[in-house]
Each structure stands twice: as structure tokens, then as C-alpha cells.
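[Solved] Which block belongs to which protein?

Original post:
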Amino acid sequence: MVAMLGFTIKKAFFDTWDHLLPIMGLNLLFLVVIAIPFSAAPLMAAATEPGAAVVFGLGLLVMFVFAGAVSEVIRNVTDYQGIELRELLAAFRRTYGGSLLFGAIFLLHLVVLGISVPVYFAMEHFIGLFALIVLFWVSIIWWLACQFYFPIRSRLGDPPIKSLKKSFIVFFDNPGFAAFTGFGCLFLILGSYFMPLFLLIPGPTGLMVWIHVAFKLRLYKYDYLEENPGSHRRRIPWTALISEDREKVGPRTFKGMIFPWKE
């Protein structure tokens, strides 16, 4: 298990490094997609707060639609193929419906939090505290489960609702792994904010690479259990299962990263 987690970090890093410029380009598009609707929010807020909320919601939905298309491209990266930006348009057509639905559910969750948290905080009663605790843990489970939605959609091709159900199945079957990937997401988000190239490295696309790599490798567990019924679910031969990917990533050195032609 430790070998698999360590290799997840290594593969995600080098998949990002090997496609650094295209990933930066996708991150730049991400910033444009986010900035256009969100920049209108202050203007809307000057007239009416509900108007700003509508603009924010639409911006979030646009971001999810774009993320769904990017997910299709990043799947190819984690499968050792190149990034073809022209594939984005075709990916939009395939994924926009499911991405909108997922974004709408995510937005609904934010609305529920925005309404219920102040109400429960204002309650000077044990019931309010209990409700906040339940809401906190439900939200944690939701966030840790939904990180697998886009990789499941892109890699397995399941319908949106089925992909969402599988996201929760992956979480409840692998809570420790889901927490590991969740902390990785948090690290990448903070890293993107504090890096010199704001949100361009690793940025949203690098975050997508991380989740795709993690889910791709985790799928080997289910392939193994399907081929070996009756095997212990906690005794997965990870070293053997990831051996082919290890060979494809290969040994890497700092010199080889900067000057690959000299290797």
C-alpha cells in the first residue's frame, strides 16, 4: 500500500512535469473561464445581492462544464498519451450535461451550507451544535467522495448519477485513500496559490492530474479482485499491479527533468 501511495505522488508529479506547457495553457483557460462570470459579481452586487449570487452560481456551473472537458484530456495524459487541446471541443459535447448536473448538486450543497450554518450557529441549544456536527461530517464525506466524480466519468464512461454513486462506493471502500487524495488536493490548492506563477502551476489542471492518477491506480485493486475472486480485500499486491506503470514512468533524475536530451 505504501508503495502504491508513493508511486501515486511520483506519477502525478511527472505526468504534470512532462506536459508542463499544455497544462499551463489549460490553467490559463481555467482562469479566463472563472474570471469572466466572477468579475461581473461586484457590479451585480452593487444593485442587488441576489444578482451577485446568481452570477456566482452561473460562474460555478461554467467552471464545472470546463472541468468536465479538461478531465477527458487529462485521462489521456495519465494513460501516457499527449495533450491535444483541440480535443476540448469534442469533450465539451460529450460531458457538458453530466458536468452541469454535478455542478448543480455541488452548488445546492453550498446553498444548504450557506443557509443552515448561520441558523444552527444562532441556536443556543444542543440541537444546533449536534446539527452542525452532522453537517460538518456529511460535508467532509461529500467533498472526499465527489473528488472521484470526473475521473470515474472519464475513465469508466458511466452516466452522471451512476458515476456519483460510484464516487461514494470508492470513498466508503477506501476511506483512508480518499483522505490521502483529499489532503493531496488541499496541498495542491495551497501550492497553486503561493507559487510564483499564480494558479498556473500546478493549478486546477494539475489538481485534475493528481485525482486521475490516484483513481487510475486504485482501479487496479478492483481489476485484481475481479480476476481473483475470494482474495483478501486488504491484501492487494500493489508492487506487482503497478510494475508496468513504474516501467513506463521509469527512473528519473533532476538532470533528466531539466535536460532530458542528455539522459
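(Second protein starts here: sequence line, then its C-alpha cells.)
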Amino acid sequence: MRRFIPILKHTMLFRGIKEEEIASMLNCLNARLQTYRRGEFIFRQGEHISDIPLLVSGKLHIQRNDHWGNSNIINVIDFGEMFGEAYAAPGSGAILNDVIAVEDSAIILLDARRVITSCSSACKFHSLVIQNLFFAISEKNRKLVQKLGHMSNRSTREKLMSYLSEESNRQNSTTFCIPFNRQQLADFLSVDRSAMSHELCKMRDDGLLTFERNRFTLI
């Protein structure tokens, strides 16, 4: 697990903490490493968790499937992000969505109670982790509000324009790549894939954008 310490140093949870301090905290936080193959479930809907998972390699999707097999991608977890922390608090209930590895992935599990409780020595860097946890949760809430903004649009075109405009601004470029294929983008925006593909072609014909696979240019 020590090989991931340089990676942990650059995560939001351990921001501002030195590598040697992180190393001393891993035992304190009861850290465990788990690896998953592409397509494996990290968590399934209905499970109870008591750890804060932190992705140190790979990519995950948080998604929900209905009775008929339709998928809705709730969120994408990228390298260095934590997830599932809302369900790690005592009494928070079972996880409401599935978490699936879309690439070969590795996560580090941190005991939630130990993360939020300062150790007996009250070390400064543990207090900083608690502060970083608050900021990380705030950032995730902001991203969920952004997605709700996309979803609040009624038409498929409006949802696409909202999402693609945000990605252009986030990447500070009118040409950018998105982290989805066509089906995943449709699942993320909760629209029909065929209707979305048709709308993208209409937007291209209307001179709004060009695209090739997951690479877009806004005009």
C-alpha cells in the first residue's frame, strides 16, 4: 500500500499533508487496499458500508438500474476521488446505487469512524484530514447540483448544450473530450440514445458543434 502514498498526497482528502505523515496515518485509519477488474461491482445497491473508499487507480461509475435493465449514471468517480462517504455514517442506511469499475481499479478503504475522530495525540495533520473531508463533500455536492442543472432542461438538445458547455468551460477549451461513450452519455443525461445521437447530428448540421467519438468542438 505504501506505493500509493505519493498518489494519496495529491488527493483532496490528504491535501497539505506530507508523505511521511500520510504513512503514519494509514494504520491509524485502518487503511486496506482492494483491487477490481473492469466490470466488477465495488458495491451493490442495498449494501451497508462503514468505510470511506478512495479511488487510487482506474475509473468507476455510480449507477442505478431499474427492473427492466435501464441504466442511469449518477456520477463518475475519477482517480483520486472518494465516494460512498454519505453511507458510511452510523445510521445512514444502505447504499442506494451500484458502484461499478469501468476500468481495472484499486481503492483504499479508510475506517470512517477513525477518519472523523482525532487520535489521542491530536496530531495536526489528522485535523487537516477532517477539514479536507468537509471540503471534499462540499465539492461533490456542487457537482451534483451541476448535474441537476443539466437534468432540469426539458429537451435533449438543451441537456446536451448544458453539459457540453460546462465541459468546455471546465477544460478551458472549445475542443475537449468527455469521459463517456454514446450510451454512457445518454445514461448520464437520462435520454434515449437514438434520440440523443439524432440530436447531435442535427446540432452538427446546424453549425453548433463537430464531434468524433467522444471528442467535441463547440462552434
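Accepted answer:
You had them paired correctly. Confirming on the second one: The helical segments are 5-8, 19-28, 112-116, 124-151, 156-171, 182-189, 193-205.
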